[in-house]
Give the backbone structure.
Amino acid sequence: MMTALAFIIGVIPLVVAAGAGARQSIGTTVFGGMVLASFVGVFFIPALFVLFERVVARMARKAPRRLEHPVKPAE
């Protein structure tokens, strides 16, 4: 997060640039993309992880139980 934040702050001069040869569109795109990627990485990915863990746990509870040794070997 520190690297992403430093990059976002470093792109701000491109976002507010004006004059001949200004790369304002590139700066705006990079700024928005990094903000969105940081948001997804911090909030969305962990939320998906928790959701998938709950779904897997629910499926495991509904699955039929298997016997540890269903058939004993003939002696």
In short: The radius of gyration is 26 Å.
